[in-house]
């Protein structure tokens, strides 16, 4: 061997060994794309993604949520980065606890999944102020989301902070990490025209900023028709296979960054639903029409803890996702989509390299997926102890230090430090000023820009009024009692989250703007400019009554008699039995906030009924990680008057499982597999109702069986006219005591010979069983 060749070999050998063995380092991944797909390490990929937001659950929940996402067939997790939780005060950052973004991304990578990081800075997401920290609103001459120097300055600083943090921990794919894509801005086309030329310049600037910050992965802009060449425009919606014209360039792939699995809810809304079949069909259609990535928004919605939700949004977020608020599998949505992902993977070669065409197989094509029903069970162990109360003092104007001629605007008064602000004024009446007739009373009218308020006259509660998500403004009108001499008019104004969408978000207003007293002998008296005292927050917040230490600062009394408005309540309870999720049923309350061991589980509002006559949300999630084994402190601040003695502590399960299969069902997706790059059929697939208990529990009870024409849904089946006792006995035989079972769909097995009351109809087999913890027989 020549000296030159030996020298070259000596130089290359360490590099070759490093590439083979990685020298103990994580392998770097090259992520590129073209007009057909995203390409990772030279391989074209079908990406099945789901949105999971780290601050909407807890670090203790993250591993199970990520593991179940993978079990559901996902290979990619998408999350926003929430500026206002990470930098609540300018220059002071928080990446701990629920906000530990790095830990969350590393856990995803450890499960072998990829990440799409949507850094914002605007995220919408039904999140307070769309993710912007409130201090940003106070920057001189700032205009959010426009080519405005103060905004560009702070956006760049924030984006650099996040990207550098990711680089520091080597989380980008080209560093060996799981982040394969990132997104800048969010649905900017919705507001772009409001900013005119400044909007167009801002889009170009934002794209340039993103690519300059890190060019090793693709960058996205969702719903951005004029996205610059350096970033990929994507689709958001429910039917992107039909509505998306494609990205704005021939060399960009078709990506669906938000496929809404249902809809978030605001207080006053009825339930939100989206059928698993509709969702699955939309996904299949998108991939069949050149799609390469579908992201479910949300795959796990979680909980808006504390005061993080935007205006009127419930604390429960996208509960109808494949993983519900508690991280439990919502069937059939979870299983239906899991089977769809398997089917699409089996078709990967055809989808990425074939020519699309449509073939109609059957009008009633379905996939057999297990169903489940969620159960809220009153805990046998966690019983609330004695309830005690502390009533807020209703202040008068002279007791409030902050004075102004008219009531100050509510957002800027509170600066997002609390939901509450007191306003009070005093006015003196002569007896002759008041109505002389007994059938006429003065009326207090408050025109408010939102969101809600309580009124008191001379310390007595008058009433409560509120707006809605659609119309935050409202007019409060109530009869009041006035007396000769000094009268004190006091309002407790409140917000229910800050706005999260629309143009010029820095120019929004709330709170009382015009206050009058009608029905006086001299007519209507405008007291708007009567000089008002104001106070940010209520006293209990300042004392931190929701903490163990803070609760010692107040004189609590035992709760007896009728509950009152603006009152704090506290009790202690032991952690519920088992390890199932925990919730509180708050239907005996009205509106307020709840803390467990000092941690807020969010706002509740059960007095705001939907058109169905029911609260939008009745149960409120208490993460297990918030609890101690015993002596847990529960503190409730009730605004309008509810009875805490009837609050129920619940454990949550999805142990009621069901299966419905019909004679016209096609074979299950597991009837096929891929071997040697060829699709093949498994021999003799069993058509039947398959049931599998969650978490290796066993089937302890058969609750419903029908072989005929049952109606209804899991947890609420209705028996039809046709049925079979033999089918019920067969289900008990095949399933009781097992973790899973399959009941063959065969008339000869399910129906007594010669005893079929409906021989000429197409039959359905509907089965509902209850799972529990106990010994199991061998699985079917």
UniProtKB/TrEMBL annotation:
Known catalytic reactions: Hydrolysis of terminal non-reducing beta-D-galactose residues in beta-D-galactosides
Q: What are the residue boundaries of the SUEL-type lectin domain, all occurrences included?
A: 689-772
What does the UniProt entry say about where the protein is found? Secreted, Extracellular space, Apoplast
Which GO terms fall under molecular function for this chain's record? Answer: beta-galactosidase activity; carbohydrate binding
For this UniProt record, the keywords arranged alphabetically read as follows: Apoplast, Glycoprotein, Glycosidase, Hydrolase, Secreted, Signal
Q: What SUPFAM superfamilies does the annotation carry?
A: (Trans)glycosidases, Galactose-binding domain-like
* Enzyme class label: hydrolase
The EC designation for this entry is 3.2.1.23
The secretion signal range is 1-22
Q: Which GO terms describe its cellular component?
A: apoplast
Concerning InterPro entries, the annotation shows:
BetaGal_gal-bd, Galactose-bd-like_sf, GH, Gly_Hdrlase_35_cat, Glyco_hydro_35_CS, Glycoside_Hdrlase_35, Lectin_gal-bd_dom, Lectin_gal-bd_sf
Q: Which GO terms describe its biological process?
A: carbohydrate metabolic process
Homology family = Belongs to the glycosyl hydrolase 35 family.
Q: Which PANTHER family match?
A: BETA-GALACTOSIDASE RELATED
Q: What is this protein called?
A: Beta-galactosidase
What is the organism of origin for this protein?
Sesamum latifolium
Q: Print the organism lineage.
A: Eukaryota, Viridiplantae, Streptophyta, Embryophyta, Tracheophyta
